[in-house]
Amino acid sequence: MRLLGRSAAVAAAGALLAGCAGGPGGGGGAISDDKVVLAVLTDQSGVYADLSGKNAVEAVKMAVADFKAKYGDKAVTENIEVIGADHQNKPEVANSKAQELYDRQQADLILDVPTSSAALAVANVAKTKKKIFIDVGAATTELTGKQCNKYTFHYGYNSYMLAHGTGTALTKDGAKNWYLVYPDYAFGQDMEKTFQASIEAAGGKVVKSDPTPFPNDNFSTFLLKAPDLDPKPQVLGALQAGGDLVNLVKQYNEYKLRDKGVNLAVGLMFLTDIHSLGPDAMAGTRFTDFWYWNADENNRAWADKFHAKTGTRPTAVHAADYSAALQYLEAVQRGGTDKADDVVAQLEGHKVDDIFTATGTIRAEDHLLTHDAYLAEVKPSSEVKEPWDYEKIVSTIPAAEAFQQPDPACKL
Amino acid sequence: MILSKLAGRPFLLAIGLLVALILPWFVYPPVAMDILCWALFAAAVDLLLGFTGLLSFGHAAFWGGSAYVTGLIALHSGLPFPVAVLGGALFAAVLAVPIGFLSVRLRGIYFAMVTLAFAQMVYFIANQWRDVTGGENGLQGIPKELFGLDLSDPFFFYYAGLPFILAGLLVAWRIVRSPFGRVLMSIRDNPARARALGYSIDRYKLLAFVLSAALSGLAGGVFTIGHGFASLQGVYWTTSGQAVMMVVLGGIGTLWGGTIGAALVVQLHDYLATAGFEETGIITGTIFILVVLLFRRGVWGTARDLIAARQARGRPAPEPDQPKIGATV
C-alpha cells in the first residue's frame, strides 16, 4: 500500500508539472518549459565518485553562475536548473534515468556519464528522444565512432587520446623499447592497440605485450619478467585503471623496477588517483592528462573558486564538465532557443575558448571536442609545494595530433 | 467473515492483475517494466530456492545469457521481438542442462558455489568475446520490432512485454501447484524419503533447474528489449545476488513474494538514483537487514501469516497447527 501511495504522489506531481508546462509557459516557445534544465548523470557512490561524482554537479553549477553573471538581463532565460542523478555505474539504471530525466524532469541536456556501457546506453536514449547528451567521463571511441549520433557529443578524453599521447611522446623522447601490460577487456584492448600503433609510428618497438586478468590484484608474474626481456624495455606501459592501477604501481615500487632501468608510463590516471596513492608512489610516472588545475593562472583561479565550494581540487573531468555546460548554455544563447536541433547546429564546428581549453573545436563530422592534451609527470613529494600539487606538464600535444581522425563508420 | 472470504486467493489474484495492468500510470513506465522483469526473475529463483531447496547463485548466467541471445537475434535478424525473447529463453534452458547436470547433486553452499562458478565463466566469455557481445561496451541499440508497430514509447512497450511476464508467472504458479511441484517440495523437505518413495530426485532437481533458467531467460530477454541493450552487468554475479535478495525480502517459498521484493528493490534503486545520497549501498543494506530481522518470512510471507492468524481468530474452533504447504523453509 505504501508503494501505491508513493507512486500515486509521484503521478500526481507529474500531472501537475505537465499541467504547468502546458499552461502559461507556452508563450514564446523558444525555451521549452520556460527553463533550461541541465542534468548531471554520474557515479555518486562507486569507483568514479571522486574524479566526477557530486563535485561534477558543483562544476556545472559554477558554469551556470558564470553564464548568468556574464549575460545578466540579456540571458536567453533566467531560469536554469541543475539536477544530479546517480547511475551507480549500471547501464540499465543509466538508461532508465536518462529517459526519466528527458521526459519527466524536462532535462534539455544530460552531462558527464562515466562508464562506457552506460554512456553508450544514454547515447541511444538521446538519439530516440532527440535530446542533447554531452559525455565527459567515458573513454570509448565508439561514442564518436560506429555508435555516434546527431545528439551525442564527446568531451574531454578518450582511449585514443590517452594511448596515442603517451605512446608517441615517450617514444620520441627516446624510449624505444616498450613492455605493455593491459587489462583484458574492451578498454584495455583498445588502449593496447592504439599504444602499439603509436609507438611503432614514432619509431619505437613493443618488445612484448601481455593481457592481465581483470580485475586483478597480483601483477608479479608480469613485473618480474620485465627487466629480463630481450631487448630490455625502457618503459613499462601500464594500461590499467583505478584499483588495478593502484595494485600494479605498489608492486612496481616493491620490485624497484625504476632502479633496474624500467620506467613507468600509465595509460589512464586522474589527480585523485595520485592523491590516494601519494605522490612518492607515483613520482616520475608519465601519462597524458587533458587539464591540470595548477598549469597556469587561469586554471588556478578557477580551481580556487572550485576549492572554495568543494574543499578539494578539481580533476580534469570536473573542468570538462564545467566547460561542456558553459558551451551548451552559450549555444542556447547564440541560437536564442534550447531546441535540440538548433543547439546542435550551434555547437557543430564551434571553437571553444574557456578555462578548460583555448584550442577546442567541436568537430562537425563526429561531435568530438578536439583540444590540446598534455604529457604530464608526477612530482616527487620534495617538489610538492601545496596539497594536490602533484603534476608538472612536460609537453603539449597539439589538438590536431591529440585525437584520432573522424571515423568513417560514424554517420550522424 | 466477509473480509476473510474476500481475502481469498481469487481476490488477491484479481488485485495483482489489476496492479499489473495499471502500474505504468503510477510508476514511470521503464521502471514499471523493470519491476515486471525482476518479478519474474525472482519467481524463477524462488522456484528453486523456496520450492526445491536449492540456492542458486548463478542465475545471472541465464538472465544475462538470454539477454545477449535475445539482443543478437533482434539486432541481426530483424525478426519481431517475441521471437527474439523466446529464442533467449530457449538458450537459457539449453545452457541450464549441462550446468544443472553438474551441480544438482550438490546441496547448500556447495550448490551455490558451483552455480556461481559457472555464472562467472559465462561472464568471462561475454567479456572476452567482443566481436559478438561487444565486451564491456555491451550490445547497444537493440530494436523493439513488432510488425512495424512503434513501441519506442516505454508506456506501450510495457503492455507488449506484460503478456510474456504474466505467462511466465502463470507457468511458475502451475509448476508449484502441479504434482511435479509437490515432488519438488518433498525433495526440499526430506530428500531421503523422496528417494525412498522411488523418485529420481536428481532428475527432478535438474528439470526444476532448467525450468527456472528458462523463466529467468524469458525475464532477461524482455528486460533487454525494454532497455534496448545487453550489458555485462546482466551476467555479473551481483545480478544473481539481487534476485536472491528480492526473494528473501518478499518471502522465500511464496512465489508472489518475489514480486513484492522486486517492486521494493527496483523502486528503491530508482529513488536513490536521484535522492542525492552518496552511499546507496549502505541504505539498501540497512533496509535488507531490517526486513530480515523484523519480517523473518519476508514482507509477503509475514503478511500472509498475519491474514491467516486473523482468519483463525474469527473461526469458532482453532485449527490444529498444521505445517502449511509452500511455507517458508
TrEMBL record, chain A:
The signal peptide, as residue positions, is: 1-18
InterPro entries given in the database record: BCAA_transport, Leu-bd, Peripla_BP_I
Which UniProt key words apply to this protein?
Signal
Q: Which residues form the Leucine-binding protein domain?
A: 36-379
Q: Which protein family is named in the record?
A: Belongs to the leucine-binding protein family.
Instruction: Write the protein's name.
Output: ABC transporter substrate-binding protein
Could you tell me which species this protein originates from? Actinomadura livida
UniProtKB/TrEMBL annotation, chain B:
Q: Which GO terms describe its molecular function?
A: branched-chain amino acid transmembrane transporter activity
The question of whether Transmembrane is a record keyword is answered with: yes
Regions annotated as coiled coil: none
Give the keywords, sorted: Cell membrane, Membrane, Transmembrane, Transmembrane helix
Q: Which InterPro entries match?
A: ABC_transp_permease, LivM-like
Q: Name one Pfam family in it.
A: BPD_transp_2
Q: How does it sit in the membrane?
A: Multi-pass membrane protein
Instruction: Give compartment(s).
Output: Cell membrane
- Chief location of this protein within or outside the cell: membrane
What Gene Ontology terms describe where this protein resides (cellular component)? Answer: plasma membrane
* Annotated TM spans: 6-28, 35-61, 81-102, 109-126, 156-176, 206-230, 242-265, 277-295
Recorded protein name is: Branched-chain amino acid ABC transporter permease
